[in-house]
Amino acid sequence: MPKYLTVTALNRYLKFKFDSDTELQSILLKAEISNFKRHSRGHLYLTLKDENSQVAAVMFSSHTKTLNFQPKDGDKIIISGYVSIYEPYGNYQVYITKMEVDGIGDLYLAYEKLKTTLQAEGLFREEYKKELPVLPKKVGVITSKTGAAVRDIINVIGQRFPLTKIIVYPASVQGVFAKDEIVKQIQKANNDPMVDVIILGRGGGSIEDLWPFNEEIVARAIFESKIPIISAVGHETDFTIADFVADKRASTPSHAAEMVVPHHQELMEKIHQYQTRMNQALFNTYQSLKSKYIHLVNQNIFKQPLRIIQNQDLTFGHLYDSLIKNNPKKQIEKNQEKVKQYYQNMQSSFKHQVEINQHLFKRLIESLDHVNPLSIMSKGYAVVNQNHQIKKSIKEIDNNHDLSVLMHDGELLCKVLEVKGKDHE
Q1: pTM score, two decimals?
Q2: Cα(167)–Cα(138) distance, rounded to whole angstroms?
């Protein structure tokens, strides 16, 4: 029977071959860094590449102590190390023991040059950033139609605020055609008057994969967009040119979706807070009007006519309590007729009080008229005085005295010829 190998045995044999090859156990390699990651334990994981090929590499923390620079994507380096196989997965990779800078990578140079140019033109300035809508009706999403990014965005928005509509503008997000497709879809979304905000992004990747978001035509299309754009390239630490130009930057597509719409529960809490504030404002307004009302009715000129209004203050209090406990709009509609009737009753009571006062005033005038001296004198009576002293008896008057007789329509100046008493015949 043929002799079969296990996968483990095969990988172990290949590792032995690699480790036994002296040419592979001491190499000097010139390459450019891509997909750089730093592990929490200090290990460095990266891809070494040139124009045509790439290979995975690792530098353990025991060797990173010799570094005299901070490695990053795009750096051109010279490394010393060896090649071996990671037996559990059968992947061969370069194990770096020493790393030195050979120069700045072409992509990094292009990135810095474009960044400097656009920054000088003002494309990154905050004054040009557009505010995101509070509650968008439609969200445009520019990304790959088959990637994880679009699924994440749809799921997050659906969970947070299901009423928001999503329209996907599919575009390649890596490769030579990506930049043109992204620009085309930005322009297309801007032609839809219903789109309130745009999410542009992808789910992360190497610097080469993300390069369309560092292209100048993409940056200018973002800047010229009339609709606010959130850049969500999916890189926690590294920034693309699109991140600087966009109105907002999100670390991941899911984060962008969270920025676009509020959670429906949070929205309900805010509505409750606004309702509480509205009720408090209504109560404060009522208290203020009540104080003004009390001050007004305490004025002397209004005390008597408005006494009925004072007695109805408790009714207003009950109406207010009912207004707070129930829907204000419905209660207002329900009580409009009551308020109208109350107002009419108040007018009627006020009018009745005025009529009573007018009648009392008329009677008082009549009473005064009865004791008015002029009214009595009009019946034939007169007032006699001498030297401005009223004479009440003939005993106070002598013959030849000059007297003044005051009648209701004038005055008589007289001289006494003779004084006669009641008993005179």
Answers
A1: 0.50
A2: 7
